[in-house]
């Protein structure tokens, strides 16, 4: 629509049809617009400079992004100052505040819930919790070295030390996740600084790599071509009922998907970290010139080898490192996939924020062990709805989320830990059978 530019008269008005065409593809070419609180922003060029990454913001091109904007940013007033140059207009007065296809009452109810959460102080962190959590990781790290130092490098102390170091890696993974989500400090930059230390020096991985992948996952969980966590479809696995049938109808077969629930045990939990992540992260850091991240990563490897080389030699130290990554990989894959693979996986249908997260996530029963073992990702639903919420508050908001689900007839899935693990395999078996039936008969 034609009109005067912002700041030079009346604000330009747009319809949802016009905005929907500016999604980076289609009739409007590479134009990308999005809506936040009825304001329309042109992110076509800005997306490349977006601090959270170009892809995560582009996933909302042509859509209302109010709820993810609120969910992901701490200092919204500061962010809005940087957004002002991108403002090109607003929704026309006769247009609803979000796409007409979305559930108006559910959107409004969730925003009321969000306001209640803020008023209750559930987004405020307990710094003592995170300090103690870091201390328990450091204690385990030191204990692993003391065992080798005191008992020597024979098989039993070697294995016991590897288990402790594997635990350190898993638990440091959950802790870096907290800092990456800006849920520990009130200032974003403080979280970023400590995040680089935890993921870089304690784990040997680049913070920029985690940010690039993980924020996309949260923006559009289980949405094919938008959530990188489901990128193993279709090269290695057929995921979700809809996508598996589509693959079969197209007569595509990159793997024998009807056996994927079996080969998952080979190329899934044991292999992801030691055979893929371990090497790709260096390529990522160098290719994107993330030199600070690379320096933090190297500090981990230098410390690890200086610590264990005198006792184990080169082969022993390399073997210990590989075994630790193997333990970490199994732990990481089972915990992170139990909440998502059994859930709905499809293309982005642009539904409301609450429904987007609930259809893609499920919970695991609360217990002291489950909380610790999963880094509180047994509260995956609450984490996805409120990604900056400190994890020690998930249990407090869970009843409110359950109540909202009940009000709108949305299933709130919560299951035992071992059942959640088994459901990964069952869902892979089911989608593999759906693919085979479509491949042979449709």
What are the salient characteristics of this protein?
globular, about 60% helix, about 5% strand, four-stranded mixed β-sheet, about 450 residues, mainly alpha, disordered N terminus, 18 helices, two-stranded parallel sheet
Strand content: under 5%
Query: Could you say which structural class the secondary elements and strand pairing correspond to?
Result: mainly alpha
* Widest sheet: strand ordering: 1-4-3-2
**Averaged pLDDT, please?**
95
Q: What is the distance, rounded to the nearest whole angstrom, between the alpha carbons of the first and last residues? A: 45 Å
Order of helices and strands: EHEEHHHEHHHHHHHHHHEHHHEH
Find the count of extended strands (DSSP E, 2+ residues): 6
Q: How many DSSP H or I helices?
A: 18
Approximate helicity band:
55-70%
Low-confidence stretches: 1-8
Spatial extent as radius of gyration: 23 Å
Principal-axis shape equals globular
Question: Mind describing the biggest β-sheet?
Answer: 4 strands, mixed
Entry summary:
This protein has 442 residues and is mainly α. It has helices at 16-21, 54-58, 66-72, 76-83, 104-119, 127-151, 155-180, 188-201, 207-219, 241-249, 260-267, 272-287, 291-337, 353-358, 368-374, 380-385, 394-408, 417-441, and strands at residues 13-14, 33-36, 39-42, 87-91, 363-364, 414-415. The chain is built from 18 helices and 6 strands.
